[in-house]
Design a protein that fits this description.
Blueprint (H helix, E strand, L loop, with lengths): L1 E2 L15 E3 L2 E2 L2 E2 L3 E3 L2 H17 L4 E5 L9 H6 L4 H11 L2 E2 L2 E2 L1 H11 L35 H5 L16 H18 L2 E2 L9 E5 L15 H15 L2 H8 L15 H9 L20 H11 L6 E5 L7 E2 L3 E2 L9 E2 L3 E4 L3 E15 L13 E4 L11 E4 L4 E3 L2 E8 L5 E2 L10 E3 L7 H9 L4 E5 L3 E7 L3 E2 L10 E2 L2 H12 L2 E8 L3 H14 L2 E5 L9 H8 L3 E4 L3 E2 L4 E6 L2 E6 L3 H19 L10 E4 L4 E3 L4 E9 L2 E4 L8 H6 L2 E5 L4 E3 L4 E6 L6
Parallel strand pairs: 6-10, 9-10, 16-17, 24-27, 24-28, 25-26, 28-32, 30-35
Antiparallel strand pairs: 1-2, 2-5, 3-4, 7-8, 11-23, 12-23, 13-22, 14-21, 15-17, 15-18, 16-20, 19-20, 29-31, 31-32, 33-39, 34-38, 35-36, 35-37, 37-39
Helix pairs in contact: 1-6, 3-6, 10-15, 12-15
The structure holds adenosine monophosphate and magnesium ion.
The site of magnesium ion has 5 residues, from loops.
Length: 683
């Protein structure tokens, strides 16, 4: 995406109104490029197009100036109502060098062809008047329509007749069309919406301000805008793009996205797609330690769950997609924390007597004004009346003949809550990445938040693989076993806060498994498989992912474990878990759980661990971490009698895991060990 410029930049440093361009692929933008002048820009564009074409990729290039003029102009000027006749006409006449160009003279020349009062206006040259091109709109007459059909819909768009002044676009058209004309000829570019986009390079007209503001403070607006447009357009699905590109505007051209502003804004708010190498491990590593594997997952994965605004009541259970700011302070006004009597100021030692005003403040009452030197009845939660900042408990007071008496000292502000002591309007009350539970929904409600930007729930597909598997509840013949992993993983996903998608059992058959994975990628954003993940003859998950060219086999130094096959299938990350149920559950808890959380938009969760005395002995070998099925009894961690990876009974026996670190260890009863209750994983 390119933000064009009609002027000249001879300075040294990046200037805000030079040309800015940004390349994005699949929703990820590169660093915006500063292109000093049009010669540099044309060269850069030509190289980019050639390189992309050589790499077999297609290019959609956007430019922020009109590709055509209002109806009638092309025909009147060139004899053909064809925008390309106009492009060539300009190309033959514009002289452009880094330090000078003839755009104002050419505009004047055109005006003189049509009587000398228009269509163009605004000579931007400081030191030279030009016959036929006024500096202002006095004595201006335009024989053509002021605006194109598109500009009538695009609020705030400038006409292409204005050649100078802040925001004017006339000069950019003059200085842009010749460059586009040359590139079009040289590369056979298809230009939207004048031609069908059947080639591999297309030009479209964009107008970033259609949906974008000036961007964050400290960033050059044009640079930020091209980056945003590039990122957003490159993230659109082919179907959405097709809809937006379907336009009839054969002479004047059209602005990309006009009429689809909401869809563009929605797309801009969505998280980027994952990069294909998100699971890449450094080469040469043989057995990756658990901590390192987790660090790689954390660094490689970013949220994929869509973003939407929900009313506060519906937001519970969702993950905040941005920091949420209090709309109202809590408490909104100072109020009393107890039932008692309120008055102004603290009191020293001794007995104090105050007349009681015939007033009462209860919770919900609008604050009144208490006369000086008086006390009044106040009830818990009541906003403090004007003239009250201190409250004594009713139990500490005697009431007699319209007066109260109490014993000091009483501090100023006693038993009162200050406005905003809990949360102040305008400050962040909920950080992005937090899943909104009961405490958070209370906080958002109290602080007057009406709508919350949240991630939609992450959809996670579960596939069991193995020719031996039969769904639980059906008849099994000899040689078959019941599928235990799928119901287990579906329930874990639900507990983690995601939406489980049951994809059933895939047999040990590559075609069928490929079909199941493709179906899963259509229905969910992440896929968990179990079984078939290592490198044996019947390990089809890893074989398929490897064929797709997007797999890393993570050999993690962990027991129970075997390799984890991590890859991308049709854009969806796939976690190939081991088939043994114990290993499948441990790997899902340790590796898949935090990864899924991050994909869902949550901050990376660390399970809450406790150091507790061991109630067991173990001689642990060095070189890998071990997770033992464990439970707390009498303050000490017991472990399951067998470490067999197929012993599902041990999972049910346990309440958590004991994690033994990488190093060798000689554990005897009483030694401190790290205990991770299942609850701290959200189970
Ligand atoms: P695999 O990783 O496919 O070699 O499987 C390892 C072991 O786990 C084999 O004994 C499988 O039968 C068993 N297994 C695989 N998938 C499941 C499942 N969904 N439920 C129960 N056991 C399984
Ligand atoms: Mg298998």
């Amino acid at each position: 995406m390119v933000d064009w410029s009609g002027g000249n930049d001879r300075g040294l440093r990046p200037k805000k109104d030079a040309i800015w361009a940004c390349v994005a692929r699949a929703g990820r933008a590169e660093e915006p490029q500063y292109l000093r002048n049009r010669q540099v820009a044309e060269d850069w564009l030509a190289k980019l197009i050639a390189a992309e074409r050589a790499a077999g990729r297609r290019v959609l290039a956007g430019f922020d100036f009109p590709f055509g003029y209002p109806q009638g102009f092309a025909g009147a000027l060139t004899g053909k109502a064809n925008p390309f006749a106009l492009w060539d006409w300009f190309e033959a006449r514009i002289k452009d060098a880094p330090d000078t160009n003839n755009r104002f003279d050419l505009a004047a020349e055109i005006n003189l062809m049509f009587g000398g009062k228009g269509p163009f206006w605004a000579n931007g040259l400081q030191n030279r008047d030009i016959e036929g091109l006024g500096r202002t709109k006095t004595d201006y007459a335009n024989p053509f329509p002021e605006r194109r059909a598109a500009e009538k819909l695009a609020k705030g768009a400038f006409t292409c007749w204005q050649m100078a002044g802040a925001g004017a676009v006339g000069s950019q058209v003059f200085m842009g069309l010749p460059v586009l004309a040359r590139l079009r000829r040289r590369f056979g570019v298809r230009v939207w919406p004048f031609e069908p986009l059947s080639g591999d390079v297309a030009f479209v007209e964009i107008w970033p301000s259609l949906t974008l503001g000036a961007g964050p403070e400290g960033r050059i607006k044009d640079a930020w805008q091209v980056e945003e447009v590039a990122r957003t357009v490159s993230s659109l699905s082919p179907e959405k793009l097709q809809v937006m590109l379907t336009v009839e505007a054969p002479e004047e051209g059209w602005i990309f996205g006009l009429g689809h502003e909401d869809a563009l804004r929605h797309a801009a708010a969505q998280p980027p797609l994952l990069s294909n190498n998100c699971f890449a491990l450094p080469p040469g590593v043989d057995w990756t330690p658990v901590a390192e594997a987790l660090a790689h997952l954390k660094a490689g994965l970013s949220p994929v769950a869509e973003v939407t605004d929900l009313p506060v009541a519906a937001a519970v259970g969702h993950v905040a997609a941005r920091d949420v700011v209090a709309q109202r302070s809590n408490p909104p006004l100072p109020n009393t924390a107890v039932d008692g009597y309120g008055f102004a100021g603290g009191r020293g030692e001794g007995v104090h007597v105050l007349p009681v005003a015939q007033m009462r403040a209860a919770a919900g009452d609008a604050p009144q004004v208490l006369p000086d030197g008086h006390a009044m009845r106040v009830l818990t939660g009541a906003a403090l009346p004007d003239g009250v900042d201190t409250v004594v408990l009713q139990e500490d007071v005697t009431l007699n003949a319209g007066q109260i008496a109490f014993r000091g000292p009483v501090k100023q502000g006693a038993n009162a809550r200050a406005a905003g002591e809990d949360a102040v309007a305008g400050t962040v009350v909920l950080d992005k990445g937090v899943r909104i539970g009961a405490p958070e929904i209370a906080l958002l409600s109290a602080t007057g938040v009406t709508d919350v930007p949240v991630h939609r729930p992450l959809r996670v597909a579960v596939v069991s693989t193995g020719a031996e598997l039969v769904p639980a509840g059906q008849a099994a013949r000899d040689g078959q076993i019941f599928d235990a992993n799928r119901p287990m993983l579906l329930e874990m996903i639900r507990r983690f806060g995601h939406v489980p998608v049951d994809m059933g059992i895939a047999p040990d058959d590559r075609t069928a498994l490929a079909q199941t994975l493709s179906d899963a990628a259509g229905k969910a954003q992440v896929i968990l498989t179990s079984g078939g993940a290592s490198a044996g003859d019947e390990d089809h998950v890893s074989a398929l992912l490897k064929d797709a060219g997007r797999m890393t086999l993570w050999r993690i130094a962990v027991k129970p474990g075997r390799p984890l096959a991590l890859g991308i299938w049709k854009g969806a990350p796939v976690f190939g878990l081991p088939g043994n149920p114990v290993a499948a559950m441990v790997c899902a808890l340790i590796f898949a759980r935090p990864a899924l959380a991050q994909l869902a938009g949550e901050t990376w969760p660390e399970p809450q661990a406790f150091m507790v005395p061991a109630a067991f002995s173990k001689n642990k070998k060095p070189g890998r971490s071990e997770f033992l099925r464990a439970r707390l009894r009498n303050g000490a961690a017991e472990v399951f009698a067998s470490e067999g990876s197929g012993r599902i009974s041990g999972l049910s026996w346990a309440d958590g895991l004991v994690e033994l670190p990488h190093e060798a260890a000689q554990i005897v009863p009483g030694d401190p060990v790290r205990y991770l209750p299942f609850g701290s994983f959200g189970l």
